[in-house]
Amino acid sequence: MKKFIQYLDTYKENENIQSIEYISILDQININYLHYKLSSNQQIYNPLSNYSLWQNQHDYTFLFDQNISSLSKKPKEYKEINVEIQNIQDLLNIIETYPLDETIQYNIDINMLHSIHNELHELNDMIGLSAFKNQVIDQILYFIQNLHIGKIGDYKHTVLFGPPGTGKTEIAKLIGKMYAKLGILQNSTFQKVTRSDLIAGYLGQTAMKTQKVIEKSLGGVLFIDEAYSLADINQNDSFSRECIDTLCEALSEYKDNWMVIIAGYEDEIKQQLFKANPGLESRFIWRFTLDPYDSKEMFSIFKKKVEKNEWSFNSLDSTIGEKWFQLNKDSLPYFGRDIEALFTYTKIAHGRRIFGKGDEKKNLTLEDLEKGFDTFKRFSKNKKKESVIYSMYC
């Protein structure tokens, strides 16, 4: 009994008892108390039955941790992570080298890094975009160290500069998922909108329409693709001005609980959108540039689409493929978007070539690619003509 009392004295000085331990002790004490108090002069052998007496003598109330651990909890082992981060792979290496372990205390929040493991992998596996991948590291390291927390919160609003087909929507979704998991955003809501989703046909309705979109996306990400289209280049469109003014005010009002990501060509966003409201530009502090893909990267994107769809092109090696895209990349100005269409037309051409030849099914050749490309070019020309006609009457 003396040993038990001594242990509790020592425990009091060194450890907070865990909630699950306290509940177990009290449960056992109550059982023992009722059993021995109501029994005839039995000697008490169970040391837990003297706990109430000990508590009264020591006038001490235990504090409780939320985590469950053993009664003889050991001090955590301390490990310092001191790695210079050059790229996303360095972050992935930290995650793989330093596992989550309740017995280890790290000098960084390893839990945060582990929470975005899948998103970092997905981002790292994206083809090209080396400049963006290098830039986004700054944003990740800033937020996981809670450097954004203070009396005055920081803006999270972000610009993605780049031409169509460079993965802006996919990247915006990844950013949203990462920051929801890190607790920077309250939820993983992702709402993609364009001009038509924000601007109404009558004056006064645009502010209401824009505000509804804003409220629906609060706590998550509002992604505005081709954001420069919100502004009138001549600054004479009162509907555009109403939308931009409403958006600009909301960017400040909800900055602690909202991320707006706008995307489009750099020159158009700077010359059209940011000039439409003097306060707009300063609210987008994070700016990333998505460089156009080179011919090697374009072939890699095509190859990735082929393999993802469980097709193959055994007769089309890397040298031939890269050379082909080098010769024809100017006809694919929308990069990933055009490559997806090219893959579809190539499959259609393949279907005609292998009719009755089942052994070659889903194995693309250079001939398939060339004929698919011919169809793609015909479609692209018709599309351009339609665009010209439309612009003449609108």
CATH class category name of the largest domain: Alpha Beta
How would you spell out the order of helices and strands? HHHEHEHHHEHEHHEHEHEHHHH
Q: What structural category do the secondary elements indicate?
A: alpha/beta
Order of strands side by side in the largest beta sheet? Answer: 4-5-6-3-7
Shape, principal axes of CA atoms? globular
Count of helical stretches: 16
Mean pLDDT: 83
Q: Radius of gyration over alpha carbons?
A: 31 Å
Tally of domains: 3
Low-confidence stretches: 40-54, 62-66, 68-72, 385-394
Within CATH, the superfamily of the largest domain carries the name P-loop containing nucleotide triphosphate hydrolases
How would a textbook summarize the main sheet? 5 strands, parallel
CATH topology of the largest domain: Rossmann fold
Return the CATH architecture of the largest domain: 3-Layer(aba) Sandwich
For the secondary structure, the number of strands is 7
Helix content: 40-55%
Whole-Å distance between the termini? 93 Å
% residues in beta strands: 5-15%
GO molecular function: ATP binding; ATP hydrolysis activity
Pfam families: AAA
Protein name: AAA+ ATPase domain-containing protein
Keywords: ATP-binding, Nucleotide-binding
